Amino acid sequence: MSQSNVITEMKNTRNPLDRPILAIATRFGERSKEVERFLKFLVVGLIGAIVDFGTVSLLQATVLPPTNEFGENISLNVAVATSIAFLAAVVSNFTWNRIWTYPDSRSRSARRQLALFAFISFVGWFARTLWITASYHFVGALFMPIFLPFIRILRPAYMPSYAAEGKLGTLVAMAIGVVVVMFWNFMANRYWTYNDV
User: Which of 20, 189, 183, 181 is nearest to 101 (CA)?
Assistant: First the structure.
């Protein structure tokens, strides 16, 4: 991409993030368009992660706690909360990827792209949900001693409960799952859903 094309493209940007993304991507020469797409995909993924984590936190704090009043695990609540959150993030991610990351991908209808995007997301969701429901309490028990000193800065007398370990474990296991699923989603969507660009 020539310097004049970069300047023209920067002038035509419609999003405040386009300018720094283009500035980074142009350093990669002929791979600049793929780097630009990947960086935009990461931003969209970050927005999706905020939607995902925010939704699961809200659900676990209100109607779908990970444990009952006796401190027993409720894996079904964890699976339902993380699934609802994942679906909200998928809708957000598809919308932003179609509009911003791949605006030039229009040979397939939005309905067809959504179906492909949803299938790829479903594979990621399935793997992520299995991982979270199988590991959230173990992960919470493992990470609570690491996070406890930071929690006690704000709440000095805080004593972690079984429920708190479950909530922390859900969030940490989700974070691990998000990273793994992000790479799966980018590669599968780039070469299947948006392969016409």
Answer: 189
- Centre a 10 Å sphere on the Cβ of residue 39 and count the other Cβ atoms it contains: 18
pTM of the model: 0.69
In contact, 94 and 114? CB cutoff 8 Å: yes
Residue 85: how many CB atoms within 10 A of its CB? 24
Retrieve residue 130's tokens.
Answer: 């299995």
The number of C-alpha atoms within 13 Å of 156 and in the hemisphere containing its C-beta is 0
* Digit-coded pLDDT (tens) for 95-127: 999 989 998 888 888 889 989 998 998 898 899
Per-chain mean pLDDT for the chain = 87
Query: What are the backbone angles phi and psi of residue 13, rounded to the nearest 5°?
Result: -70, 150
Listed by start position, the domains of the chain span: 37-193
